Amino acid sequence: MFTVQDEIYRYNEERWEALVEADALFTRPMLDLDEEQARAYLGLERLGLSGDLTGRKVLCLAGGGGQQSVAFALLGADVTVFDISSGQLERDRSAAEHYGTTVRTVQGDMRDLSALEGSSFELVWHPYSLTFVPDCRIVFREVAKVVGTGGHYYLMCANPFFSGLTHHSWNGTGYLLTQPYTDETATSYPDQDWVYEPSAHRIQEPREYRQTLSRMTNSLIQEGFVLTFLSEVRGDYPGAEPGSWAHFTGVAPPWLESVWRYRPGAL
Prior knowledge:
two-stranded antiparallel ribbon, 27% helix
C-alpha cells in the first residue's frame, strides 16, 4: 500500500506544477468550444457511449487543465475533476467560469479516491496518466469504489508493448526495444517537442512505469469491469520521415484507449 504524499506523489505534483508554469500543451484550457465542438472533441459516440450527458455525473480522473472538464460541462454533465496539481485545477475553474458553467475540483492522488467515495459516477474519464504510478491495480480498485453499477470507465494509457519507446529509438531500420516487458519497469524520456512553445523552459522528464496488458486487463475484470471498446491510437502521416515522431506513431501505436462497464458479478 502506498503512503499518502509519498515520493511518487511529490515528484508528480512538482512536475505538473512546473508544467503549468511552462504552459505545456496538456495544461492549456480549451476556451473556444461550443456544444458541437465539445461533442466532437470527446468522441463519445465513437466509443459506444451515450452522447446525452444532461445531468449525468462525470469524473475527470487525473485530468485537470480545463480541457475535458469544460467539454463535459458544456454538454450538461455534472462534472468533478480530480487531479494532483493545484495549478491544473485552477485552470479547470477558470475555464468553467469562462463558459459560465460549474465544475467541482478535488486535489489528490489517483491511488486514493476516498474523498469521492459514495459519489456513484456514471462516467469516469481517465486520460493519459496511469503510467505515472507503479501499480495500476491500486487505481482500478479505487475507481471501482466511485463508479456506479452500470457506469462506464474510459481509460486512455500508454500502449504497454511500446512503453518507454519514442522516435529517438530509431536505429536506421526500425525502433529498437531495449526494456523488459515487465510490470513496474521504470522509464524516463524527454518530452516531445510539441509539448512546449518554442521559447519555453524545459522541465524535468516524466517518470513513468510500465503496466503490462495482462495486469491491466485482469485487474479490471477482477474489479467487476467488462470491456466494451478497445482501440490502438496511432498516427496517420503518409510519407513521414523515418525517425520522426509522426513516422513512429504509425509504426508503433503509442497509446491505447478502452471503455469498461462496471458490472460487478456479471462474470
